[in-house]
Design a protein that fits this description.
With about 60 residues, the protein is an alpha+beta fold. It is built from 1 helix and 4 strands.
Length: about 60
């Protein structure tokens, strides 16, 4: 089984909304997902938790 790599990038605005991009790479396939949100609660729970844990208004991290 091939391990996938997931990279999350985000930018929050002063109102708590923002944009997040999730890049997934599995072997030869790559996907990009873009999320525009008004609140972190609108994101998938694992992505919202990763952003909250980081605590930054912008960032890039690897997520499981």
């Amino acid at each position: 089984m091939t391990e996938s790599q997931r990279i999350l990038r985000w930018q929050l605005d002063e109102d708590g909304g923002g944009t997040a991009w999730l890049f997934e790479d599995v072997g030869q396939a790559a996907e990009q997902h873009r999320f525009v949100f008004n609140s972190l609660d609108e994101l998938p729970p694992d992505l919202a938790a990763a952003i909250r844990e980081d605590g930054g208004t912008t960032g890039e991290i690897t997520v499981p």
